[in-house]
Amino acid sequence: MVLNRQPINYSIFSSLSLKHSTEILRSNVDKVQNWISKVSSLVLTKIDKLTNKVNNIVRELQDLSKRKC
Predict the structure, then answer these.
(1) Among the listed residues 27, 51, 50, the one whose alpha carbon sits nearest the alpha carbon of residue 40
(2) Is there a contact between 58 and 49 (Cβ–Cβ < 8 Å)?
(3) Alpha-carbon gap, residue 69 to 63, rounded angstroms
(4) CA 44/CA 34 separation, integer angstroms
(5) What is the 3-state secondary structure (H, E, C) of the chain?
(6) Cross-strand partners of 1
(7) Which of 31, 44, 49, 64 pairs with 56 at a CA distance of 20 to 30 A?
C-alpha cells in the first residue's frame, strides 16, 4: 500500500495468522479497507500473472491509461 507516494509498512495493514501451526503475517482486509478509505493505493505486484483474464484487464488498463499498470 502507498499513501502520498510513500510505502506503508506491511505490518501496519496486516495481522498474525496461523498457517500449518506457524504464525505468519497476512494482509488484514479491514485494515486494508481502512487505509483505502484514507485514499491510499493498493499495489498488487505481478497480479497479471494470476490468470489470462486478469492479464487481459491489466493490458486494457494500460492501453486506456497509456501507463504501466
Answers:
(1) 27
(2) no
(3) 9
(4) 17
(5) CEECCEECCHHHHEEEEEECCEEEEEECHHHHHHHHHCCCECCCCCHHHCCHHHHHHHHHHHHHHCCCC
(6) none
(7) 31
**Which tens digits make up the pLDDT trace of 10-55?**
999 999 888 788 888 899 999 999 999 999 988 888 888 889 999 9
Q: Are 61 and 48 in contact (CB under 8 A)?
A: no
Farthest-apart Cα atoms in the chain, separation: 45
Q: Which amino acid appears at position 59 of this protein?
A: R
Where along the chain do its domains lie? 2-65
Which of 44, 41, 43, 45 shows the shortest CA–CA distance to 3? Answer: 41
Name the residue with cell 486494508.
Answer: 32
